[in-house]
Amino acid sequence: MIALYRAGTSPLHRSPAWVKLAGLAAIAVAISFFGAWWPGLGGAAAAVVVGFLVAGLGWRELGRQMVGIRWLVLLLVASQLVFLPIPEALANTLRVTLVVLLAALLTLTTPMSELLDTLTAMLSPLERIGVPTAQVSLTIALAVTTIPVLASLSRQLLDAQRARTGRLRLRAFVVPMLVLSLKHADELADALRARGVA
């Protein structure tokens, strides 16, 4: 399984995983209620920037994450502009972008093993009513980490393509990206089997 965790000693690195998960959930819920309220969205964007800086990841890593999800952002904007006014389409896209960046921040500052252990512990009361907490925690962890992983893969692929040819070609990007995505899916399947989930 690809790990995006960056070791560090920042306050975010030292914070318990449950605190970061609760913060991610709280901010994501708050953002969902903002709608097209731009002051609120601006405040959430500032919180994301502060998070990256406090974690010691810096502007460069924040820029790398934003570059990595640029195709997702463009796809979201283009698909929504068909049905929604421009302000609403931009606000919806910004909300999704902020949540993805927060998920990336969580992944960059929290080891996967700690994330899984925390989720399993948080969900353990549900075992009494038959909920498979190990599988649920793994699913949540995968959902949080998959988009940053795919963004990282696309960024590596585009960097390699730019280094070889000096330009970007969509056709030369799609097929290798599909191969890398399927390879990542195989690695996830191996990880699931190793944990006795599949």
Question: Explain this structure to me?
Answer:
It is a single chain. By secondary structure, this protein is mainly alpha-helical. It folds into 2 domains: 11-110, no CATH class; 123-190, no CATH class. Helix content is 79%, strand content 0%. Helix 2 runs antiparallel to helix 6, helix 6 packs across helix 8 (133-165) and helix 8 (133-165) packs antiparallel against helix 9. The two termini are 15 Å apart.
Chain-wise SSE layout:
Layout: H1 11-14, H2 17-34, H3 38-54, H4 58-68, H5 70-81, H6 86-109, H7 112-123, H8 133-165, H9 170-194
Helix pairs in contact: 2-6, 3-4, 3-6, 4-8, 5-6, 6-8, 7-8, 8-9
Membrane topology: Multi-pass membrane protein
InterPro entries: ABC/ECF_trnsptr_transmembrane (IPR003339)
Subcellular location: Membrane
Beta strands, count: 0
- Elements, N to C (H/E): HHHHHHHHH
What is the rounded Rg? 18 Å
Strand content: under 5%
Which structural class is indicated by helix and strand composition? mainly alpha
Low-pLDDT regions? none
Shape: globular
Number of separate helices = 9
What is the number of domains? 2
DSSP helix fraction: over 70%
Largest sheet report: none
Q: Terminal Cα separation, in Å?
A: 15 Å
- Average pLDDT metric: 81
Membrane topology: Multi-pass membrane protein
Pfam families: CbiQ (PF02361)
Protein name: Energy-coupling factor transporter transmembrane protein EcfT
Subcellular location: Membrane
Defining traits:
globular; transmembrane; 79% helix; 2 domains; 198 residues; mainly alpha; transmembrane helix; membrane
